[in-house]
Amino acid sequence: MATKTRVAIIFGGKSEEHEVSVRSARNVIEAIDKSKYEVVLIGIDKKGSWHLNDASRFLLDCACADPVSSTSSAKDVTLVSRHNHGELIGTAQEASFGTIDVVFPILHGPNGEDGTMQGLLKLAGIPFVGPGVLGSAVSMDKDVTKRLLRDAGIPIGRFETFDRSEQNSIDLKGVIQRLKLPLFVKPANLGSSVGISKAKDEASLKKALDFAFTFDRKALVEEFIEGREIEVAVLGNEHPEASLPGEIITGSQHEFYSYDAKYIDNDGQRIEIPANLPQAVVENLRAMAVKTFKVLCCEGMSRVDFFVKKDGSILVNEINTIPGFTNISMYPKLWEASGIPYAQLIDKLIQFAIQRGA
Predict the structure, then answer these.
(1) Contacts of 346 (CB under 8 A, 6+ apart)
(2) What is the CATH number of the domain that holds 183?
(3) Stretch among 26-35, 45-54, 101-110 having the lowest mean pLDDT
(4) Which of helix, strand or coil describes residue 290?
(5) How far apart are CA 247 and CA 268, in angstroms?
(6) Do residues 247 and 178 both lie within one domain?
(7) What is the pTM of this model?
(8) Both 46 and 67 in a single domain?
């Protein structure tokens, strides 16, 4: 009998997207081919401590307040390097829980999606799913992402970036004059629509910036773009491929695709896959998704989000290097519609990580 590949799924984390990560991990555990892979669960709680979770108990404990550090199913662990494998060591007993062959990090936001976890795994010599240190870092920071895309000639919306040190001296009237109302304000280094606000006047712009600065030292102010919200999934290493595009249609009760619309309100959005678009626009989207992926030095997987205007022109909004794997997440749904079912997608992602190596 062939030895199973031991896959560590790292999830949770200290960021504001902790709960989304927990949901994503649960779905991956349920879908992964258990005849081929042995799953090891490593949960990071909101304080940053690492815990070894029992997979079967984890699925039951997900309804509790903190399934990551539940005392009924978790042991404190640390990850150490052992000859290009990872070994899990109990921090209290110094007992070994065995080696791992590859890591699937499902950590959204800072300290997981921004190159920090990727750097740790790189130093430990452990293969991992998704982009490496550079691709993760530049894609996480929306300001850096947009400047790199602009330099590469990829169309993006107009934006301005401000540092927290400027918080009380920003020329709000000037920003409004240059970018026009309404405006969207967001933290530079968060996803899942956390910290995003829509500003309709000077007072709400000030409030939106103050809110964004509670999450990050950098905040972006972006022009409003009237267009359809389209997403494309990318998969691969040296020769990445793009999925069919899908469309996010936000419910009329929400002003934009907010965190509540995504995860709280069951009627907050609906998804159309594939998106109803002319074939020429579809091909343009897929080509631009791959180009964006390459420009930002990504590997393994990413999801590229676009605006498609009435005239068919396309603007890149952002990229997500560890897209969600929840039951409503676009990345697995896009690939399923493109001919790769969930379990096969996970298999491909793990194999791409192993092929790339540490």
Answers:
(1) 28, 31, 32, 33, 104
(2) 3.30.1490.20
(3) 45-54
(4) helix
(5) 14
(6) no
(7) 0.87
(8) yes
Q: Are 355 and 238 in contact (CB under 8 A)?
A: no
pLDDT (0 to 100) of residue 312: 93
Give the span between the Cα atoms of 55 and 78, in whole angstroms: 18
Sequence-distant (≥ 6) Cβ neighbours of residue 165 within 8 angstroms: none
Helix boundaries (H) for 221-329 = 259, 279-295
The reply to whether 133 falls in a domain is: no
C-beta of residue 261 within 8 angstroms of C-beta of residue 251: yes
Distance between CA 226 and CA 288 in Å, rounded?
A: 19
Number of domains in the chain: 3
Residue 234: predicted pLDDT: 98
Taken in order 22, 25, 27, 29, the sign of the CA dihedral is: negative
Average pLDDT, the chain: 86
Sheet holding 197-199, edge to edge: 159-163, 218-223, 183-187, 197-199
Which one-letter amino acid corresponds to residue 201? D
Which residue intervals of 13-104 are DSSP H helices? 18-31, 55-61
Same domain, 201 and 55: no
